[in-house]
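ok, trying the design again with the full structure, not the truncated one.
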């Protein structure tokens, strides 16, 4: 019977239980052996992992009615390292696709023309002079017909912003259209600048801005006459203005939003006007005549033609009346190469002296005047340069020292710095009463004739 039972292929119940018990014992011994092999650090890691797991489960259970930490959106993305070429390429491509999509969302010329046609068609009478107006009701009608791209411009907030003193509660069609054009231009320019933002962090380095301006030159009719050999000097001249005024801490980069907020791009893109007046060109730092003037002055000062300026060569700048003490400070504080100044450093010098009312220029000159590097000008500093009667002009908070903010608040910054650094400026200040009297006499003589 035992043979029949075994021949039937079925293991008796007691053997099945014994086999299971033996296998379980073998697994237990194996587990104990493996555990014994684990070092103390691994056990601690396991313990910490389990503790963290159960603690977070318990914490989530305790605050089930609150928003879980897991719902907080990710706000930090690590930038790819230099050796992570694939990730860098992926990031560049994704940025390019994003910027292309943003560009397609902007109104093109045809859509702008259509918008103008709709606005003109829905103008609300009566006209004020020759200016077409539109009320809020017709404003909303135009918004419905203009298409989805225009929806952002047809809001009550924008209408109220452009509403002034019209007795019929209307806004100027021209003002509204110019507002739309300005917004479109800003977005186009931001996208254009962002294409040169290699880091993708919302700022441009000097090399990025240089590339942008270099590729912009062929689109500016007022620069058609520039020789290609001068392009690098022109780009350097243009870029320095951006960095001198927009990068006061000298970090070597400028936020794109700061570039858009200042007027420098307007001045640069003004060179698209083929009929720009001679007066406008002379006052525009970015024009060809202005850039050639600055570079020509640099070449004229460079008497030994080595491409750099010594202190003696720089002393002939302007009317040649800069004080030796001030020139000493320039070469002490500014970047030089074997005691000589290159063109880029010279541009900062020129921008500071030609814009003495601007905070960035005053900051540049203030650093030179602050010979003790204390952050203020005291009697010693001013006596070192010239006269302490300057305290009466500036009227600082502290009667014994002048801060940069005091200089800016006084509205006398350009006069004060001229007195301190330029003999001609001092002479003009000292003889101001004589000059005024002379002008009055000349005026009287002119009236008599």
């Amino acid at each position: 019977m035992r043979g029949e039972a075994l021949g039937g292929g079925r293991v008796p119940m007691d053997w099945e239980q014994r086999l299971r018990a033996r296998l379980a014992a073998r697994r237990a011994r194996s587990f104990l052996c493996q555990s014994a092999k684990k070092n103390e650090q691994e056990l601690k890691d396991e313990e910490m992992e389990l503790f963290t797991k159960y603690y977070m489960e318990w914490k989530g259970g305790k605050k089930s009615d609150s928003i879980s930490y897991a719902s907080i959106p990710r706000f930090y993305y690590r930038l790819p390292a230099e050796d992570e070429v694939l990730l860098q390429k992926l990031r560049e491509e994704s940025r390019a696709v994003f910027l292309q999509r943003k560009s397609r969302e902007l109104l093109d010329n045809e859509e702008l023309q259509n918008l103008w046609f709709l606005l003109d068609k829905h103008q609300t009478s009566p006209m004020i002079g020759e200016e077409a107006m539109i009320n809020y009701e017709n404003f909303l009608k135009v918004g419905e017909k203009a298409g989805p791209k225009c929806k952002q411009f047809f809001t009550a907030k924008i209408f109220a912003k452009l509403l002034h003193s019209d007795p019929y509660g209307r806004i100027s069609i021209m003002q509204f259209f110019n507002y739309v054009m300005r917004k479109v231009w800003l977005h186009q320019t931001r996208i254009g600048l962002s294409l040169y933002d290699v880091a993708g962090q919302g700022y441009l380095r000097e090399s990025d801005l240089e590339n942008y301006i270099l590729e912009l030159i062929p689109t500016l009719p007022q620069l058609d006459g520039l020789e290609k050999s001068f392009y690098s000097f022109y780009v350097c001249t243009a870029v320095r203005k951006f960095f001198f005024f927009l990068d006061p801490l000298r970090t070597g980069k400028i936020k794109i939003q700061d570039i858009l907020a200042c007027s420098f791009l307007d001045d640069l893109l003004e060179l698209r006007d083929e009929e720009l007046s001679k007066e406008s060109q002379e006052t525009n730092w970015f024009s060809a005549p202005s850039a050639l003037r600055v570079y020509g002055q640099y070449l004229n000062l460079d008497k030994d033609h080595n491409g750099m300026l010594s202190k003696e060569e720089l002393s002939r700048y302007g009317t040649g009346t800069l004080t030796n003490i001030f020139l000493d400070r320039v070469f002490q504080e500014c970047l030089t190469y074997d005691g000589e100044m290159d063109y880029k450093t010279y541009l900062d010098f020129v921008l500071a002296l030609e814009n003495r009312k601007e905070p960035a220029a005053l900051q540049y000159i203030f650093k030179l005047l602050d010979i003790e590097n204390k952050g203020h000008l005291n009697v010693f500093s001013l006596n070192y340069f010239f006269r302490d009667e300057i305290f009466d002009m500036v009227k600082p908070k502290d009667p014994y020292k002048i801060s940069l903010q005091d200089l800016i608040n006084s509205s006398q910054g350009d006069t004060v710095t001229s007195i301190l650094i330029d003999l001609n400026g001092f002479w003009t200040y000292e003889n101001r009463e004589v000059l005024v009297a002379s002008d009055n006499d000349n005026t009287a003589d002119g009236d008599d004739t």
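Keeping the full-length input from now on. The chain has a mean pLDDT of 85.
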